[in-house]
Each structure stands twice: as structure tokens, then as C-alpha cells.
Amino acid sequence: MSNQKDFNWDDFGTKGFGEGYSKDKRAEMEALYAGTLNEITEKEVIKGTVVGINDKDVIINIGFKSDGLVPRTEFRDLPDLKIGDEVELFIEEQENALGQLVLSRKKARMVRAWSDIEDALEHDNVIEGLVKRRTKGGLIVDIYGVEAFLPGSQIDVKPIRDFDIYVGKKMEVKVVKINHTNDNVVVSHKVLIEKDLEKQKAEILNNLEKGQVLEGVIKNMTNFGVFIDLGGVDGLLHITDISWGRINHPEEVLNLDDKVQIVVLDFDDDKKRISLGMKQLTAHPWDALSADLEVGSRVKGKIVNVADYGAFLELAPGVEGLIHVSEMSWSQHLRNPADFVKVGDEIEAVVLTLDKEERKMSLGIKQLTEDPWTKGDMAAKYAVGTKHTGVVRNLTNFGLFLELEEGIDGLVHVSDLSWTKKIKHPSEFVKVGDELEVAVLELDVDNRRLALGHKQLEENPWDTFENVFPVGSDHKCTVVSKNDKGAVLELPYGLEGFATTKNLEKADGTSVEVGESIEFKVTEFSKDDKRIVLSHTATFREEAKPAAAPKKAKKKEDAPASSAPAEKSTLGDLDALAELKEKMEGGKK
Fold it and tell me: Can you point out the beta strands (E) in 13-94?
């Protein structure tokens, strides 16, 4: 008990932690304690050590007065995490309401990621990312845990048509743009390829020469040709240089992304335009033609083109011959080649000309059949006087061409169309396409000339008219038209006559007018010229004696001028004339 009394409670008692130290001692102790702790700042990334792991949390020591807890879910990417491992963490708060240190590894990774991304942009670093998914216009790539956008145009130097093939694969990229406002990052894979291609491109261009064979990839196709990537350098393979044969579009024989062998045909001084060829890598098909092929040979092929002037027959890819329209039919009237052949037809033809050096040949179809002018029965079939029916093919000022059969044409002169009508142009009588019956007037097989006549199918009525309209005979005529020189008259049987102006005077001094029917006297008759001249004045003036017919019209002695004998000599012809008149009048109707 005495010992308890001897204890000095005042010396032992304290009012607070550290009060038993002197000021110097306390300062010394605080310095020692502070030296064991780190100074930390909120919202920054620091390193910590794992000191404990349980089902929910990972206990981290950062050298602070207390340890921090981080959800274990934030370490899912580190399945082998163990005590003693060092990790980066983001300080959310030094102390929360419970006095605990709040840390986040997720935010630490994000901050570190943005730092690395900015550093990559500044120093042009290459980053490996994982393509997560496809999006509109490109791909989403995970770099350091940040989703970056890779535009479709920045995936490769060549156009990419299928983005899905990259999803789930790793890809090296470079950061090309950072937008801090919306935390958007744009990356490119194309720039990596372009750098590699620059060296390759320079090497290709330096060594480029005509005739050089290269390998390339088809990157684009058009209707006029194909663009081929030669390794950073593009060249054009024109459609005509793809194949020796005809093709309408490159897609008939090539596909996008195909690797092809091509040869350099030409390039400009700057080597910006490079012309390529593919067919030149194979021998020209003309060189493989049979030695037996010569003029007169029969060949088979397919029509590959039809033009206005003819058609092209392909004997083999790259070997074509022209069939001119004039060699398609023996007919002299050129028609459209499409009337004979069409694209895709497989036909036979005869070689007419052949030039293997120039690689040209002309062909004919009509030569497969016999020339109608050389047939043995030609002379007998179209002998002078034979009658035929043909089709009017062409009209000219001097006549018309009549096709009697394919290859056999004849000329009908305008003067051989009618005995009685004065036809100035054949269009007054027929039109193209009409059928016309004719008689052969002349045949010249050697010169392939055939003269035809239509009026020769009937007897010459002027032989009879010579007796019906003798000089001095009177006839009732109608004035059809008038001009300064005189009037055209319509005579019986549809004939035309002429009266000079002074011979139109009537007995009362007036002149016969158009449409008036009145008596006229024949003053001149020419059978050969088919001309009848008349006078009304001569019918009442006895002193106006009729003129004699021209001598050239007389082949026999003229009949007496009186009308009575003329009537007697023509009685036998009246029926024929009446019939002729009916035909002529019927034709007018």
C-alpha cells in the first residue's frame, strides 16, 4: 500500500498522445514517423504493392498511413496477380467518410492510356491494337483500353470492300488525331503501309523500263480498263490489252484483288502514267494460224461485231476478218448487214484477201453460192424478148433498176415505160418496192448489163395512131394547159397534142381557153417522136393549108390527106383502139 502512495500519478498521467514528450523529442519522433510515409496527392497515378488478396478486394500499400482497397474485378486482366506485385493506381480520395484511402486501377489505366496515346501522337509511335468491331465507315480499335476509330479509307492503300475480316485481329496503327473535347482518337494503318511502299515505289520507278514484266494486284475495274497496284505505283491495263480476243468489260475475264502478271508497255517522262499489257505475254494468235489458210479457203467463226459497212467474223480469239456488206449478197443493192447476220451467229465464209504481216483479212459470204451471172442457163433464161417480173429497187432521173432475182438487176429506161404517156421521172409511174412486168431488150453477160422495157409487153399503138390521126383530119380536143408558147391538148385515146398560141384563135378573134373542148385539125404527126401538132384556126380558115408531116416520120408513102380514106384504112383497128382507150382511161381513174 505504501508503494501505491509513493507512485506519482501526476508525472505519469497524460492529457493526450505525445504529451509526455518534450518539444524536441516530439519533433524528432514526428520526423521519424513522417519519413516512413509517402506524400500523396488526389487525382494522380502512383505505384502500389499488393499486400493482401481476398474474394472481393485487393489490399494495396502505397506507403500511406493506411492501405487502400481496390475491387478485385479491376484486376481481371491479371489472373496471376499475387502478393508483392506492383501495380499502378489512381488516387480518388485520401480519406472517405470512413477514413479509408480510395484507389482505382481502372482510372489509373485510363489516365496512363491517354498519356501513352498523346506520347504516341507526339513521337509518331506505332501502337498495336485489337480490332473490336465494325462500325459505320470503319473499325473500332482498342489501344491501351481506349476505343479509337480507324476509318475505312485508312485501313489499306487499296479499297477495302469487306471490313468484317479484320474484326478480332490485332493490327498495328498510328495515332493521327486526338479530340480531347469528346475523347475521340483517330488512328491509321494505311500510313504504315505507305511508308513501306515509298521505298518499294521508288525502287520500282527507278528500275521501270518498257518490256519489264511485273506482278500486280487489281485494285479497280472500269468499262475501259483495269487499274493495277504494282506496289505503291498504279498502272492502267486498257481493255484492248487484256486479251487478243474481243471483250466488252474486263470483269468478263478478271476479278478484283486478283494477282496478275503484266508487262510495261509505255510510261511518261515523270512515270506518272504507266500503260500495262497482259495479252502481250502470250503469242499473237495470228502467228498460230494454219499454214493451209489462203485466199479461197473456207473458214468458220462467230460474228462478234456488226457495223453499218459490214460485220467482223472471229475465227479464233484475236483473229478476225471483215465481211463487207457488198460481199454478203450477189445483189447490187447494198442493204444493212444486220439483214444478213447478227452478233453471236456462227457462220461459214470464204477468204477473199489475206495479209498475215498486217494481220488483216477480208471474207465473203456470197461466194458460198454460185454467181447468178455465170450460171449456164443465164443466156437462155434472160434471152431478148423473154418476159419477167421483178421488184423496183431504185429510181433515177433516167429510169429505174429492177431486181429480177438476187444478183440479177436490169435497167428500165424512162422512155420504155409507156407508149402513150410522156413520163419525165419514173416516180410518176412506179415506186420502190413495186412489182413490174418487163421484157428483155438487151443482154450483155460479159459486162453484166440487162436492158428491160415495160411498154414492149404491148404492141406500139402509134403504128395505128398514124392512120387515126393523119395530117388534115379533124378531132374534138380538150385544152389541158396553156403557156406562152401554146397549149397542151387531150386527144381521143388519151393522147396528148400541142397547138401554138396563134393556132388557138377562134373565128370571133378570141382564144381557146383551158378546159374548153373544141375541134382541132392535125397539122403535123410524127410516129417516131410521138408528137401530134394541131390547130383550131385551121378548121375555119380555108387558106390555112396543113403542113406535110416531117420526112423522118415517113417510112412509107403518106396516105392522102382526106379523112375518108383514113377512116376506111382504120376501120379494122377501131376495136383495138377502143380497148386501149378503156385501159388508159381506167389507169387514170
Answer: 45-53, 57-61, 68-71, 86-93
